Amino acid sequence: MKTKILLFTSVFAVVGLVLTGVASAAFVAIYRNALETTAQRSEATKLAGKECTRGGAKTTLLVTVGKLTEECAYKTPVVGQNLEIAATGQVSTATPPKVAKKAFLALQLRAGGGGKLELRVFPGQQKAQIARATEAGIKYLAIAKNITSLKEAKAVVLRLRVIEGSGEAAGTCKIGGYLSGELVIEAEDPACGELKGETTALAAGATNNGSGVIASFAAIVVRVPVRF
Question: Is residue 148 included in any domain, yes or no?
């Protein structure tokens, strides 16, 4: 049985970091996985998706989305709420062109219990979304289009950051989505406190039906906020 990395992120005193926004918070890495070996890739286990296949290329984790499935998600061993997750992702050229056009790479935080916060990046559309999904449906908190860094890039370095406020700001989160180190999309979610999940994950799929999407992932990093 794999050991979960438990984080009680409230001890990191994120009060004050929220007030200056997600971009200025300081974070430190507490989990790294290069996904270069079978043992490393085995730490990413299935979280969600009806028909999903996990495999391994020479130095990456391969995710293949099957029939009647919009998205396949694989979780890391890290659980917590105020976190940042990053990974390098790529939609494979083996993905059928029509599917690749609408395919997305994604990172998830606060996943579990029927909910999640998610950064979706669509390389074929040069678009990114931040969404909060619950059993009641999905709400798009922010959408960014014409992202320059997606026009030529094959592999994409994605990063999703979530920080919840304290005191009067309790229950409200600042959410930031980064590509290649640049903040390209951000949102504020006043209802994120309702999400009780603590799972961190990476995912791939396509809007409505992701059947045929093949994506690769490498170099997962999970960080926690710190205050000096």
Answer: yes
In the predicted model, is pLDDT for residue 15 greater than 70?
A: no
CATH number at residue 33: 2.60.120.560
**Among candidates 119, 131, 111, 103, which has minimal Cα distance to 204?**
103
Quote the CA–CA distance of 187 and 177 in Å, as a whole number: 9
Confidence class for position 10, pLDDT limits 50, 70, 90: very low
Range of the domain at 54: 28-226
To 5 degrees, how large is the angle CA 207–CA 116–CA 85?
95
Q: Residue 179 is encoded by which pair of tokens?
A: 């590509």
Number of domains in the chain: 1
The pTM for the full model equals 0.89
Instruction: Determine the distance from the C-alpha atom of residue 16 to the mean position of all C-alpha atoms in its chain, rounded to a whole number.
Output: 24
Whole-angstrom distance, CA of residue 69 vs CA of residue 48: 10
Assigned token pair, 203: 């995912």
Which H helix or E strand runs over 99? helix 97-102
